[in-house]
Amino acid sequence: MTKKALLFVLTFIFLSEIAVFSFFMLQNPVFLQDTVAMNEVLWAVQNHQDAAGSHENPTDLDYVVVDEKGKILFRTRNGLSESVNQALMHGDGILDVEADGKILGRILFHNDTARRLQQGYHRMALGLGLLMLLQWVLCIGLYLYLNHILIRPFRKLKAFALHIARGNLDIPLEMDKHNLFGAFTESFDLMRSELKKAKNAEAKAAEDKKELVAKLSHDIRTPLASIKAVSEVGMALAVSRQADFPGPRPDSSQRESMHREAAQREALRAEAVRSYEQIISKADQINALVTDLFTATLEELHRLPVVCTDLESSQLRILLENSDYLRRGTIPTIPDCLLHGDRLRLQQVFDNLFSNSYKYAGTEIYISAYLSHRSLSVSIQDSGGGVSSEDLPLLKEKFKRGSNAAGIEGTGLGLYISDFFLREMHGSLTLENGPHGLKATVTIPLSGTV
Fold it and tell me: What pTM does this model have?
């Protein structure tokens, strides 16, 4: 059976049920009696007035003949109304039997409306039962048909989608192409094929990228080693250089001038030594970061390792000095304690904080350090005006930057990475708006408290 034929049959059955209900609902429950037959009975009774009890019933009507005193003269069967009052209660028809203008008796005709209604209801129930049975059979057929053309294909599609979600792109979607959804499901199988191709291409690109990063990481080390070696030579020369005073013995005024020049040269030499130390320190840091990149690429690590050791708090001064290469802050006295942290990662954290201050504020930087019973906190604050209250909670999220960062180069990863490193050390990074600008507080746990 086609879809259109099935729909037509179901519609016909539904309309038939409505028609049957409507027919019986609109029927007048009061059935009119046959007046012609009643007159025939009246004529037969009147022609046998003297023997009304022995006349023949010329019709199929049921009735009772009573005289004027209510005595029963004739009945067609038992169970009929036997008095005028009963006849009125049952809605029976009543005709007077007259002769010479006098009422000799009455004929009480039985009203069989209830029987006819009951018969009609039985017929209606039988008809509706047959229609409902046919409708039920057709609904079962419709369900089986829909299960074949709709439900089963979508169940296969669901199982196929689970395979796709799990990354299994080798199992094809087997469907009947002549099915209602054949072309639709075929497109899903084509999608699976394209996804498999894209996945293979992505895997190859990832392998190529890892190989490229590994090569670049290796190649970066060569010039980096040269920079460090040249810096070490320069620092050694600056340290070993001595003031040279050739010529005759100078007088007192010349000696004073020469002492001033020597002091200036000594200050320059000290500054050169410090600069070389910073270059060497930064070279070591870059080398460690390149090593991380090389290791993460080869071993497919999802995050950089944080290796915590016992760290003397005095080393924080070196980290802060290395980060503040523009000398915009004054390093405070660091309380003596033993910290639990990763020196390399802490250097990255401070580098990010000072770099952000240089880039977004460009003002003097205020640094403070204070000790609690479980941690050491270092606060770094500038006078750049801070950020909006809406932006503040988002700064530590990946790729999130404040509204004041428009037009300034950046990726929005520095604070995210810094926060990750500190959490790995069981410390924290707190950002808040200070009196004049953004205040970043680095909290490092004390050794033995983790």
Answer: 0.44
